[in-house]
């Protein structure tokens, strides 16, 4: 117990260090002293104040929120389907969000474009949430009729494949400028969430996290199989729908605001179980939230390190970090 408390303290320290590191990292050289003054007063330079307060700070907060939410979604999916490689996008919600953005992109040259233009950057977010919501409704409808979780998993993957196929078709008809906008969105970005958008992201993800904390006992029961969970009096259909809804909402929200971010939700739950030596969700769930935030903050720091004066796509950085981790997970399970 003392070791677990120490690890949690260490994780909080790492989270703080990673958050500060993200504030200090970027193409514009800003000293720690200037960063401190910009946060709690004024640095004397309006440009530095603007960069810290309205770009780096909301970006770091977004990284922490998105990392926690995606990791939580991955943990829920792995618990429900008892599949170690299940992740936030396994039900096709991310693909649905991509389909919504692709449809919006196709409308850029049509008669409805003035209405889209009037919404500004929120149009893309609304389109992504709408696309994710459509897939969520389909999944929930299937969940209400089918008892087998594996069948739901397969159907969710099929929905994702169909959405991805439709996106590909739309891309083949898109003009070069619209296609460039969509491809840029698929790179993933943590810098597009401004202060006026932050409350929407925070509310959607915080709701999912808070509800999950009340489901820890039910999640532990599911680890022993649905038959055992049902024998303890757990309503399998209700808990399944709850888990799917939470995972889909937080995944759809993060994808809508940041674009698709891969691998984080798959690998973090495994690291949480490994570091704490338990599968008990009372420990693993908060550990997953902390580790997810830390990893995405680190990935954002790496993406901001100036190499050629450009910022690397965060989705590519998470893939570089995540792919070797998944190989390690597969090899470890094979040994077991």
Defining key terms:
mainly alpha; 336 residues; ABC transporter involved in vitamin B12 uptake, BtuC; single chain
Description:
Helices cover 77% and strands 0% of the residues. With 336 residues, it is mainly α. The protein has a single domain, classed as ABC transporter involved in vitamin B12 uptake, BtuC, CATH 1.10.3470. Helix 4 runs antiparallel to helix 8, helix 4 (93-106) packs across helix 12 (236-258) and helix 6 (122-145) runs antiparallel to helix 12 (236-258). The longest helix has 36 residues, at 46-81. The model has no long low-confidence stretch (mean pLDDT 83).
What is the percent of helical residues?
over 70%
Based on CA atoms alone, the radius of gyration comes out at 20 Å
Shape: globular
Distance between the termini: 25 Å
How many H/I helical runs?
A: 15
Tell me, rounded to a whole number, the average pLDDT. 83
> Would you identify the regions where 5 or more consecutive residues have pLDDT less than 50?
none
Query: What is the CATH C level class, in words?
Result: Mainly Alpha
Quaternary class: single chain
Number of domains: 1
List strands and helices in order, with pairings:
Elements: H1 2-24, H2 32-40, H3 46-81, H4 93-106, H5 113-119, H6 122-145, H7 149-173, H8 176-186, H9 198-213, H10 216-222, H11 226-231, H12 236-258, H13 264-276, H14 281-304, H15 314-335
